[in-house]
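lol forgot to send this yesterday, sorry. struct tokens for the thing we talked abt
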């Protein structure tokens, strides 16, 4: 019932809209998964990968309040169960159904939480969830950069999107735990760092380095630093909305801090606040240490990739470097429980961050879109083979209580769920204490 390390990949299911909502970029469609989903699951077996970041397309499944089209989910999750694959279910990936509109809609959190609970009822054997993928990036790209969905560029719009996204994530965790009390939540969040180019850029870089933590601070009920608190209040968050997040801090006990790292995650900041890519400066291990010291939660490397370039070994070398970073993180005492090359197949149009529909292949997959293995796929298969039995021997104590789909009805699992159900009931009662009582223990 326990797994010591999760080697994973994912099937890309981003669904943002562009062109003021007129065009939806559906990666499952563009990458051929709707047609080749059975083949894609076969590829997992070829690689000996047992953990898959995966989710049904939200815009096709959630067709109205309390209304669903489960047809594709029933087929794919039925096959995932039959194959005994461990899914990390990604319920919302950068977009919402047309009838919800975008992340400025204040109804989104409650609507999404209901969807999450109904999904959990339909697939009660699912234990691992990423309710909303990359909450910070979703808010940043949609409501600060103006690239996706609402395509806005103000602080007010960013904070509105952020508070709705994180509240939806928090409420979804609560609702899923009602159905599956031993559920575990793996936040897939972008790990960022901003480097000042010169002394005049120190202040804007400091602000950006504080802002990068906002989504996880709210999600884990951590008190916001004073400068960011003023930013949130000045940009439309109310005190009651802020205290909602503080009151849900017990949910962090059910969480693994999943963090993503790409070559674009570190930024150079100029004096005027503009940013550009800095490349791999600190690296995954140093930035992960910063996030771990802030939240003190188990860690999983939930996304990385690099395009296969003209030499053919660029992605292979990046895989080696990321794995070396994971081992460094683990060897310095951070409880890291998994690694993910994202994604299983190549993607489309990520060279422009899905801002344009050019239908250009982004060659970052373990397989190409014809389902032929890439060099990085062969190397990842070998890496898994080489390390899968070594890591458990390094620490028999570092294990995650993951239940395989076909074991979910076994007696030990039921006993553990009942124990956690009672524990969660106690946590919920503590979360619901009057504000005056809660203030008495806050510093």
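and heres what i got for the seq, position by position
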């Amino acid at each position: 019932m326990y797994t010591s390390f999760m080697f994973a990949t994912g099937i890309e299911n981003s669904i943002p809209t562009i062109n003021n909502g007129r065009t939806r970029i559906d990666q499952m469609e563009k990458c051929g998964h709707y047609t080749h989903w059975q083949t894609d699951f076969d590829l997992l077996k070829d690689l000996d990968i047992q953990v898959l970041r995966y989710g049904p397309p939200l815009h096709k499944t959630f067709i109205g309040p309390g209304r669903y089209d489960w047809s594709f989910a029933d087929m794919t999750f039925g096959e995932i169960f039959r194959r005994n694959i461990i899914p990390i279910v990604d319920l919302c990936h950068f977009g919402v159904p047309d009838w919800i509109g975008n992340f400025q809609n204040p109804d989104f959190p409650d609507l999404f939480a209901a969807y999450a609970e109904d999904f959990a009822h339909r697939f009660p054997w699912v234990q691992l969830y990423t309710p909303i993928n990359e909450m910070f990036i979703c808010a940043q790209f949609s409501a600060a950069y103006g690239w996706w969905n609402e395509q806005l560029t103000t602080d007010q719009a960013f904070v509105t999107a952020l508070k709705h996204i994180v509240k939806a994530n928090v409420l979804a965790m609560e609702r899923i735990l009602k159905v599956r009390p031993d559920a575990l939540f793996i936040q897939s969040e972008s790990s960022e760092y901003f480097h000042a180019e010169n002394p005049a850029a120190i202040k804007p870089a400091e602000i950006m380095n504080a802002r990068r933590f906002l989504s996880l601070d709210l999600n884990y009920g951590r008190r916001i630093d004073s400068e960011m608190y003023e930013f949130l209040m000045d940009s439309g968050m109310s005190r009651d909305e802020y205290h909602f997040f503080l009151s849900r801090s017990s949910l962090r006990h059910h969480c693994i801090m999943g963090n993503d790292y790409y070559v674009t995650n570190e930024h150079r900041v100029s004096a005027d606040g503009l940013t550009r890519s800095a490349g791999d400066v600190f690296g995954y291990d140093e930035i992960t240490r910063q996030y771990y010291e802030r939240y003190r939660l188990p860690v999983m490397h939930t996304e990385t990739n690099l395009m296969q370039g003209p030499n053919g070994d660029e992605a292979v070398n990046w895989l080696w470097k990321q794995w070396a970073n994971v081992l460094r993180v683990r060897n310095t005492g951070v409880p890291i429980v998994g690694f993910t090359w994202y994604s299983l197949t190549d993607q489309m149009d990520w060279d422009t961050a899905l801002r344009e529909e050019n239908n250009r292949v982004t060659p970052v997959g373990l397989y190409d879109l014809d389902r032929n293995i890439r060099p990085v796929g062969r190397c990842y298969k070998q890496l898994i083979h080489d390390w899968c039995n070594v890591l458990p021997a390094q620490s028999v104590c570092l294990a995650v209580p993951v239940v395989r789909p076909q074991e979910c009805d076994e007696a030990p699992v039921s006993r553990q769920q009942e124990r956690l159900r009672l524990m969660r009931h106690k946590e919920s009662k503590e979360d619901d204490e009057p504000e005056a009582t809660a203030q008495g223990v806050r510093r």
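The domain at 6-439 is CATH 3.20.20.80 (TIM Barrel). anyway ping me if u want another try
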